[in-house]
Amino acid sequence: MAIKLIVTDMDGTLLNDKKEMDPDFWSIYKEIEKRNILFAVASGRQVYNIEKYFSPKKDSIYFVGENGAFVTYRDEILFSDPMDREEVNELIAHARKGNDMEIILCGERSAYIENDTQWFVDGVSGFFGRFNIVDDLTKVEDNIVKISIYDYHNPADNSVPYFDFVKDRYKLTASGPEWADIINLKVNKGEAVKRIQHKHGIKFEETMVFGDYLNDLEMMKTGAYNYAMKNAHRQLLNQASYITKNDNNSGGVVKTIKEVALNNI
């Protein structure tokens, strides 16, 4: 059965460890377009940051940001799942008391931080295309779709357990070696991909997916051609149907698309 939708994560997957795209991506993308295969990028990053990597073809790609809490296409919001504002402020207060962690509020219009030290601002700018430094995060006027925590330690051992008291209300995910995310309970990349599939009548058997970390687990279940990167977290490696031959530093996504989805070029 022909593949009609390709979905890829960004960090540790499509991007190498230097946060660069494979130089062969755009030639492969031309072939994807020729065959009318839809392409989506699903990341824990902010949509406005993801878009910068794909500016030449921004209007032909689905952007799933904030681990599935915010989805856009052609600059239109297709889906947004804001968190309860009173509970957001409760989580901010709790985070401020935490051990070695920084808070980033992720809104529909922008991201927001309180820490204005240069090293942190520089770090945030790598993941957020739009962000503002504010005096008090509890006073931000925006629909908040995610709270990101930059963890100076391992988030699976530090920030995720620290927020365990809200696990019945929110989904807590370690989305990278230094990052943890808090989003509404039913939000994840997989549910966002299902929305795209439903919109276009695309089946499980017609979908190819790439991921590398724990926030990609639900997304792996949306496509028959689900690939964990060779460099992926062991839990993803154990659950994925396939593993790429190459890691993210060796063009694993691009090479697999060429070999499997575009196997006659």
Description:
The protein has 265 residues and is an alpha/beta fold. It has 2 domains: 5-80 and 187-261, HAD superfamily/HAD-like (Rossmann fold, 3-Layer(aba) Sandwich); 85-184, Hypothetical Protein, Haloacid Dehalogenase-like Hydrolase, Chain: A, domain 2. It is built from 9 helices and 14 strands. The protein has an 8-stranded mixed β-sheet, sandwiched between helices. A 6-stranded mixed β-sheet has the order 8-7-6-9-11-10, with helices on one face. Strand 10 and strand 11 form a beta hairpin. The radius of gyration is 18 Å and the shape is globular. The two termini are 17 Å apart. The relative contact order is 0.17. The mean pLDDT is 94.
Draw up the topology in text.
Layout: E1 5-8, H1 25-34, E2 38-42, H2 47-53, E3 61-65, E4 70-73, E5 76-80, H3 85-96, E6 101-107, E7 111-113, H4 118-125, E8 131-133, E9 144-151, H5 159-162, E10 170-176, E11 179-184, H6 189-200, E12 207-211, H7 217-220, E13 225-228, H8 234-239, E14 242-243, H9 252-261
Parallel strand pairs: 1-2, 1-12, 2-3, 7-8, 12-13, 13-14
Antiparallel strand pairs: 3-4, 4-5, 6-7, 6-9, 9-11, 10-11
